Amino acid sequence: DVQLVESGGGSVQAGGSLRLSCAASTDTYNSPCLGWFRQAPGKEREGVAAINEHGPESYAASVRGRFTISKDNAKNTLYLQMNGVNEEDTAMYYCAAGFVCTHSAGVRYWGQGTQVTVS
Q1: Can you give the pLDDT at residue 53?
Q2: Which has fewest Cβ within 10 Å: 13, 35, 51, 107?
Q3: Pair 49, 63: CB distance under 8 Å
Q4: What is the distance between the alpha carbons of residues 110 and 117, in angstroms, rounded to a whole number?
Q5: Contacts (Cβ under 8 Å, ≥6 apart) of 61
Q6: Per-position DSSP letters for 10-56, written without gaps between them
Q7: b/e for 39-67, b at 16 or more Cβ within 10 A?
Q8: Residue 68 β-bridge partners
Q9: What is the pLDDT of residue 24?
Q10: Which helix (H) or strand (E) holds 97?
Q11: Torsion sign over Cα 52, 57, 60, 62
């Protein structure tokens, strides 16, 4: 059963913080990688952060030092802590699972998305 359900999106002021969550079914959670992508209106979907089963996290240059990806294995849940947000972070954020979670081609499963708006 494939399931990725995001939550935690909303409106936040520039400079503020937000934490996104992604609850996954067990099989999906155990994919080789998990990650977060985002898509702003008129732009392509881009990788934000990814975490492999046994390797280090990776981040897009635009969010490195501000966002943190993490996992809670007891809850089958992926998180994205977003600090120091700015208007360029406004986008629909998607949880992803697959074989390579740094670009869309490597993603096998997608969540439905959660909107983040920074003003």
Answers
A1: 81
A2: 13
A3: yes
A4: 20
A5: none
A6: EEE-TT--EEEEEEE-HHHHTSSEEEEEEE-TTS--EEEEEEESSS-
A7: eeeeeebbbbbbbbeeeeebbbeebeeeb
A8: 81
A9: 95
A10: strand 91-98
A11: positive
**DSSP β-bridge partners for residue 67:** 82
DSSP state of 8: -
Q: What is the pLDDT of residue 38?
A: 98
Mean pLDDT of each 10-residue bin along the chain, 119 residues long? 90 98 94 96 96 88 97 96 98 96 93 97
Token couple for 2 = 């494939």
| Contacts within 8 Å (CB) and 24+ apart, 28-31 | 28/2, 28/3, 28/4, 28/97, 28/109, 29/73, 29/76, 29/78, 29/97, 31/97, 31/98, 31/99, 31/108, 31/109
**Pairwise CA distance, residues 116 & 2, whole Å:** 24
